[in-house]
Design goal:
With 140 residues, the protein is α+β, with helices and mostly antiparallel strands. The chain has a single domain (3-119), classed as Cytidine Deaminase, domain 2 (3-Layer(aba) Sandwich), CATH 3.40.140.10. Helices cover 44% and strands 16% of the residues. The protein has 6 helices and 4 strands, in the order αββααβαβαα. It has helices at residues 3-21, 56-67, 70-74, 86-95, 106-112, 129-136; strands at 28-32, 38-43, 77-82, 99-104. It has a 4-stranded mixed β-sheet, with helices on both faces. α2 runs parallel beside α4. The relative contact order is 0.14. This is tRNA-specific adenosine deaminase. Residues 3-120 form the CMP/dCMP-type deaminase domain. One of its GO terms (molecular function) is catalytic activity. It comes from Phytohabitans suffuscus.
Length: 140
């Protein structure tokens, strides 16, 4: 890891601290463009916004999808205080961002939480293939 990457990670951690001081979960992220300039920054606002999806990684992925062309997005790096959750990882992939660099891993985060980990939500399926596939066929 080079000095620039460490500085960007430190900024993501500072954004996480800002979120915590504001009463939100302690997560922060920023996007760095191909030229090394910071394009956008976000912190978690899930409590302030009363929105469970207000993760900084998701907000930045939305921003990138709306504002960056595909080539720029692919050359952009997200620096984040913690490894993105599955929801955010999906949004990052869909936005076309090229790379994520994180400070804490998901496992490290879980070790810091009382009652570590997320509950497992039971899922059933697949089912009704013919009907469900008819709605999707030809879209992609």
């Amino acid at each position: 890891m080079n000095e620039d990457a460490e500085a960007f990670l430190r900024r993501a951690i500072a954004l996480a601290a800002e979120a915590r001081r504001a009463g939100d979960p302690p997560f922060g992220s920023l996007l760095v463009g191909p030229d090394g300039a910071v394009l956008a920054e976000e912190r978690n606002t899930s409590i302030a916004d009363d929105d469970i999806t207000a993760h900084p990684e998701l907000k930045l992925a939305r921003w990138a999808a709306r504002r960056l062309d595909a080539e720029t997005a692919a050359a952009t790096t997200m620096y984040t205080s913690c490894q993105p959750c599955p929801m955010c990882t999906g949004a990052i992939a869909r936005s076309g961002l090229g790379r994520v660099v994180f400070a804490l891993s998901g496992e490290q985060l879980d070790a810091l939480k009382p009652g570590a980990g997320w509950p497992v939500v039971p899922q059933d399926g697949p089912a009704l293939y013919d009907e469900a596939s008819a709605a999707v066929a030809g879209y992609y």
